[in-house]
Amino acid sequence: MARFGRLPYASHGHGTAGSDAILAGPGDDTTAGDNAPPHGGPLAPGTAFLHSAPRDADWDALAAKVTAYHDQTGDWGLLDKWLRHGRPYHPGDGDHHGRADFAYETVTVPGIVVTGVRSDSATTDAVVVTASDVTGSITSAALYQGSLQDLASAPASQWNVLTPVFPGQTVTSSTFYGPNTPSFDPSLGAGEVRAVGSYKYAEGPSGPNDDHGMIYQGPVNGVGGSWTQIDATSLIGKGDTLLNTIAHSTMGDLVVGNYDTSLSTGHAFIFDMTTGQWTDLNPAGSLSVTAYGIWQNDGSTSTSYTIAGGYSDLNRLGLDAGYLVDYDSGTHAFSHFTTFQFDNRPLAALISHFDGITGTADGYNLTGDFVRGATAGAFFAQVERRADDSFAGAHWTEVAYPGAAVTFTSGNTVIDDTVLGIYVADGATHSFVASATSSPPPSHDSAATDWDALAAQVLANLSVTGQWFA
To answer: Among residues 293, 335, 292, 339, which one has the least CA distance to residue 313?
Structure first.
């Protein structure tokens, strides 16, 4: 998201040399470039094919696995993994191509739980961060405006703790989950922000423990700002009662979030702030779904958005797999619904959920949480958009705050190559900033490759040279 530039790419060879060039040849594209032979012919002399893979590998055994996978599934998916990893790929491996490394810092102000971030400048690292301030038994919405680099060490005076003001309501708790700034929405005045979240109040019609959605617009110190209550009442059917509305993220004219009713949980919504229209978000007809992040594509006047969250066909928590889906606010059409499992291992990752999304030059960076066996943790994921606008597969990096006392890490939001979230150590919750010190190189687009032809080239090369690589 941040416009002050992306971090430089770095090569991670996994013990091999030169993995930054997986398929050599002019163009370094998803085929062998201008040196590529006609379909079915051997690779041209001097063309490097899988040249970064270890030459002492048991290529016959690995080739047998690739062939067996093709026989079972009809595709050359494992050959794709060879090319993208620059090393032999064993069935069951996660997608470990080009892991990013992170430098971790703890937010020094106690009680701050970071939840969302948005760039606040086209030329510097200025950001607006949403959070909760937990002081004793009271949880209050909080905003930070300042340098991303200085966020972790910023004093308490830079955190603005706000109390929502609604006529006739005694607010008992509040939380901000996502901001937007004039850098992305020029309708916001200079120095203004928009932040969405939820709050509770003592006189609530369904009880003092239920959440209500809220939108704040104004300066980060709260002086002169406006508060708007939003509840998904119009989405509730006859005989049902709305319990909770939680606004998670906003961009452009839209707010996304979740709502629960007396009869069921696990519903997601889209709210159009301009028209006042509510849309139920469940593009795959799932048993449950969440909507935690939204990104407006193509600028502030665009009707094209990408929404991130989780869904489930097995439970009402929306936590089985992450998803991305496109939404057009003009036509109200959904498209390109795509699911994701952490490390691309659907059988091993019991839970995968996207919590935050940010746009990049070629797609999106995301963060969220996973559960794999007895392990629960956070991740940083990169997803490219293909030429046909569909989503390519994700590249994953686990985000884990270091230290023997740390028992849990959660990724709440992401800006460029920086993840913000929380970790638990010795029973206490802390916020963190994890900045990438290196970033994975962009992947080859496997959907654009003729894998049958490429497999034929590999086999032809073997027959001519006696080697699995040139």
So the answer is: 339
CATH topology of domain 102-443: Neuraminidase (2.120.10)
Residues paired with 129 in a beta bridge: 117, 144
Nearest-CA neighbor of 175 among 160, 156, 197, 200? 197
Question: How many angstroms separate the first and last alpha carbons of the chain?
Answer: 41
Characterize the bridge pairing of strands 304-312 and 171-180. unpaired
Distance CA 288, CA 261 (A): 13
List, in sequence order, the alpha helices (H) in 322-450. none
Torsions phi, psi for 136 (to 5 deg)? 65, -125
Which uninterrupted H or E stretch holds 81?
helix 77-85
> Up-side HSE of residue 346: CA atoms within 13 Å toward CB?
7
Domain boundaries, the chain: 1-97+444-470, 102-443
What are the DSSP calls for 167-202, one per residue?
A: TT--EEEEEEEEEE-TTT-TTSPTT-EEEEEEEEET
Show the tokens assigned to 162: 């706000």
- For the full predicted model, state whether its pTM sits above 0.70: yes
| pLDDT for the residue numbered 465 | 67
- Residues 77 and 446: their CA atoms lie apart, in Å, by 9
Tokens (6 digits) for 25: 């040849």
Helices marked H in 14-76 — which ranges? 59-73
Average pLDDT of adjacent 10-residue blocks, the chain of 470 residues: 26 24 24 29 34 44 64 57 39 41 96 97 93 96 97 98 96 97 94 97 82 98 97 95 96 98 93 98 93 96 97 80 97 97 85 96 95 92 94 94 96 97 97 83 48 67 61
The phi and psi torsions of 436 (rounded to 5 degrees) equal -70, 130
Rounded Cα distance between 195 and 221, Å, is: 12
CA-nearest of 409, 299, 294 to 354 is 294
* Residue/partner pairs of 184-190 with CB below 8 Å, 24 or more apart: 184/118, 184/119, 184/251, 184/252, 184/296, 184/300, 185/251, 185/252, 185/300, 186/300, 187/300, 188/217
Distance CA 447, CA 56 (A): 30
Would you say 197 and 141 are in contact if contact means Cβ atoms under 8 Å apart?
yes
Phi, psi of 60 (to 5 degrees): -65, -45
With tokens 């939680």, the residue in question is: 246
Residue 88 tokens, joined:
């032999």
